[in-house]
Every structure is written in structure tokens, then in C-alpha cells.
């Protein structure tokens, strides 16, 4: 792991592969860390790409900032890391909250992306009920820690049948959730509750996009992915069978197979 100081915060990240390769930057979701992208980092560094996977502030091995962390802060951190690495433009992807950070990054820095990957995410703003839920959950995580929450949501993050048949994957997801600092998770929940509406933004995207979703995702169902696919001017939609909210870990071969032609297309400028 390397570290960079971005806006006064230590950001942990991995930067692997050919430094002259096409850069692919992947943003993790909540409440995870950069290790969720290991199957993709392994696959695409071997294929010649430069793969960058940061820990968001408040997560993994990055610095923790209590309070409220808006998606725009995560997006600005991402741009700051790119500056640190000397990268003008990247293929940018994210899962769940990471996908919403990607949307905010495009809102702020559209000239800095060559392609976009949206995995198991959605562009709508939070509802009134959702704002209450996220803030209440933030209070709970600060009071109780992450363990109870992790146990409650594991069979939504990972499909129940995969929890049973893929214990290594389920164990990895549980460790990431349990290891997340409650202060960081709570700050992100409060910020995410105030996120803007990205639905119209998607119609303005001028680069190719890939939308990927697990067929059995309850958090961001296939209908959300289909909506994004319709909104984006140039997009491909791939539904991963046998997966829920984390198809990149539940079905890494199928997820990587979806990314492979998209990345080649963006790399070649087709």
C-alpha cells in the first residue's frame, strides 16, 4: 500500500500494473475498502492496465474524518489522488456508493474521464424517509459499532445462496464491514443522505459507459440499472446472474468478462 496526503487527509491506495498502461481507477462502496476490487486488480493488471484502488477517507487504511462527508468530498479526493499520481484522465468505475461518487466526479470533472463503469448503483436523490434512515443508522453505528449491522446486511450484500456456498467471499465482505471505522461510515451515511439528483446528469455523459448489476440485488435492482442504461447516451448493460449487490466478488469471472470488452473499447478509442 502507498499513501498520499489529499486535502490534509492520508489516503491509502494501491497502484498496480504497467505505469504506462491505460489507467483504471475503481472506487469501493460502503462500508468496504479497496480490497473488494482484488479480483479486478489481479485480472486487469495482468492484461496490461494500470489499476488504482484507493481507500475512501473514513474507510480502510485512510484517515477518518467524523461529521459529514459529502459525495463531492470523495470526488475531490479522487481528483486529488489523480493529481498526486500525475494522471490527467482515467477510466473511472465504482460500486454502490462508489458509483454515486463516480457520478459526482463526472459532475465536477467531466474532462478527466475516458469511460465510466457503474456497478450496482442508482442516480436518484434520497427520499425523505431515506434521509431519516441514513441519519438514524449513522447514530446507531456510532453507538454500537459495525458488527451488528454487518451481520444484518450480509445476505443482502451477498446473495443468501452465495453466503452458503461461497464462505470465503462472505467472510471477506464481513471482515470489510466489521473493520470499517464507525465514524467514517457514519460521516458517509450523513453525506450520502444529502446527495444531489444525478438522473439528468447521466443524459449529458459524453464518454462510453458500462452498467453492471447483480440479477438478485435488492439494494439496487435490475430496474435501476435499466433506467441508467436508458439515460446514458452510449452505454452497455450487463446483468450478472447468480449475484446480489457485489457481483465483482460473488461472480468475478462474469464481472471481469463484462469489463474486458468495454475497457478494450475505451483503450482503443473506438
Automatic annotation (TrEMBL):
Keyword Oxidoreductase: yes
Domain of life: Bacteria
Gene3D superfamilies to which the protein is assigned, alphabetical: alpha/beta hydrolase (3.40.50.1820)
Keywords: Hydrolase, Oxidoreductase, Peroxidase
Gene Ontology molecular function, alphabetical: hydrolase activity
Residue span(s) of domain AB hydrolase-1: 23-252
Name of the protein this chain belongs to: Alpha/beta hydrolase
